């Protein structure tokens, strides 16, 4: 899936390493890149054809894969140029980009993109951006590296919110909660009615991150949340403890055994009316609801906790494309990116994957269903847009510390002190490593 | 032996002619010998250096650095190890799980495999059926065993909770960190038992039946005959099984990775190495430190094994 961190063979690491110190260190190792490279050496490396553009896509699920294929086919028809798609697992992105990467590849906006831009692995596409039209300033900011140059072509996004079934709310007479007290009261009522209030599956490690993000942004504001993600605030601060405290108060209303359940199973329980609500991104319940049931799916923005921050921040991860610095066919790649930045290209994609929303404001919403239209309203009314925990912070911090910490919290919510102390100690090591 | 032929009738017939004594002094190798030696000995040594020793030493060296795979390398001294032992919450559970894994395979699956082999070797009814059924999981990769385990053990949709009639109060076989490692060990033992069984079956077939008969004549009962005569005769197989068990336990990875990426109670050293090095994280220095710990644990077993083998060699 889109976020899931982890690992898999996706990189090619047989290129000679750069940097004198490293080379001298590894000279003794005849294998070149050492132990690290050996597994990667064994994986197949995609090599592009001469004229066309190669594109590394991490969309292996059927729906997005077909949707991407439609968009690229449209480009091939229009430009008479080839796009060769290699479906790769991007978990190994570091070595992928240092090896022989595809010219263009799918990736995520925000800090997780900036991290690789700072490492010098991405090509600056500021020139292309001057010709782009229809992207808001907020989106441009998410596509911009720390050096002020643009690296990212945004394609589609999907907001996170609290999903539920209209019919359940209608027949039981539930009201949409505006603030946290109403939210808790609704959960209590659902439990009384024999319904599990919140669906939760965190086996993959990332789905529960969305709940943390919203609790933190509502309780402490967007600026605090982003600073925390960037390692500038302490995880042992009272603000973070408060977030875990609020969450602990909600956990008894969640499905039990969340660490053993996939997000698909959680979304299915919502679809089967066994659970009442779920904090997820639009594609997640979207993919698990049948076409007939889809009209019954609805969402509301995460409720307000501190009136000072209201509901102004919305979590809406943006997916898009990057140009590798090592691209072999840069001109072709830029031409493809120029096409992908157009509203038409986005709409072709969305036709087959209606669980997302186009980033370009020029994309007509005429073909959107009610859910997509609501998503557009939610995001366009937002004062701040966050990307998602594992996109707003360093990839090594998210995948080796936060996933485990949140799973630990779900399993044992009472040891908040031990939890935040452990996170903070590891954070210091990781952020000091640069 | 030297055949006497008719062409040399004068020599007195001898049954054994001593081979002409070798010339003393350094041996002479022809160029051809040298070339053959280089190819047959040099190439493997080169490959060994390049593919085993090089990466190993590189890992050890990298474990004293902080390197993210892109920038320059900075020396970090023993910091990685200090952080690992003190501040990495997954480390000690991973060590514990690796040892559990070793204990389960060595103390449960291996003896059980031997027992099954003995039973089948004695020719119980349908032994061929048992043999193939028990061997079946061995042809599956552990990752596939992991997927099968999920189908059975999943909390909401798994077969086991349905069979137990616990849909209302399901047991979280894979999500509960106190429980999931045992379930996974069970699945791993399922596969390992078949593996061990087939090795012992092959070994038992090669034990000379006369040994057992002799033991019986000497008045040994079946138990004594097995433990005092058959099992010692199986020594080469025992060694192979022991080595395989240790290797399987230390390299365990795919099954937990297939289940939940080796988190939340299923940590293993190999998973931590992967999480830190192969994943997007690229904490190569830190991950190498974990790999070195795994190397040291493995070396402990390798050295013990070699010492035992060499001692045994001397005794014989």
Any chance you could write out the topology, listing elements then pairs?
The complex is a heterodimer of chains A (434) and B (316).
Chain A: H1 20-26, H2 37-42, E1 53-57, H3 62-79, E2 83-87, H4 93-98, E3 104-108, H5 111-118, H6 126-130, H7 137-142, E4 152-157, E5 160-165, H8 166-172, H9 180-192, E6 196-198, H10 209-220, H11 222-229, H12 238-250, H13 263-271, E7 275-281, H14 283-288, H15 291-294, E8 297-300, E9 313-315, E10 318-323, H16 330-340, H17 343-352, E11 357-358, H18 370-380, E12 384-386, H19 389-392, H20 395-411, H21 416-432
Parallel strand pairs in A: 1-2, 1-3, 6-7, 9-12
Antiparallel strand pairs in A: 3-10, 4-10, 4-11, 5-7, 5-8
Helix pairs in contact in A: 3-17, 10-11, 10-12, 20-21
Chain B: H1 31-62, E1 65-66, E2 74-75, H2 79-87, H3 91-121, H4 127-135, H5 142-153, H6 159-163, H7 180-206, H8 209-217, H9 222-233, H10 235-250, H11 254-260, H12 269-278, H13 284-315
Antiparallel strand pairs in B: 1-2
Helix pairs in contact in B: 1-13, 3-4, 3-7, 3-10, 5-7, 5-11, 7-10, 8-9, 10-13, 12-13
Written description of the protein model:
The complex is a heterodimer of chains A (434) and B (316). Chain A has 434 residues and is of the alpha/beta class. Chain A is 46% helix and 13% strand. Chain A folds into 2 domains: 22-157 and 319-386, 3-Layer(aba) Sandwich (D-Maltodextrin-Binding Protein, domain 2), CATH 3.40.190; 160-315 and 393-431, D-Maltodextrin-Binding Protein, domain 2, CATH 3.40.190.10. Chain A has helices spanning 20-26, 37-42, 62-79, 93-98, 111-118, 126-130, 137-142, 166-172, 180-192, 209-220, 222-229, 238-250, 263-271, 283-288, 291-294, 330-340, 343-352, 370-380, 389-392, 395-411, 416-432; strands at residues 53-57, 83-87, 104-108, 152-157, 160-165, 196-198, 275-281, 297-300, 313-315, 318-323, 357-358, 384-386. Chain A has a 6-stranded mixed beta sheet. Chain A has a 4-stranded mixed beta sheet with strand order 6-7-5-8. A two-stranded parallel ribbon of chain A has the order 9-12. In chain A, helix 3 links the parallel strand 1 and strand 2 (83-87). In chain A, helix 3 packs antiparallel against helix 17 (343-352). With 316 residues, chain B is mainly α. Chain B has helices spanning 31-62, 79-87, 91-121, 127-135, 142-153, 159-163, 180-206, 209-217, 222-233, 235-250, 254-260, 269-278, 284-315; strands at 65-66, 74-75. Mean pLDDT of chain B is 85; it is low at 1-10.
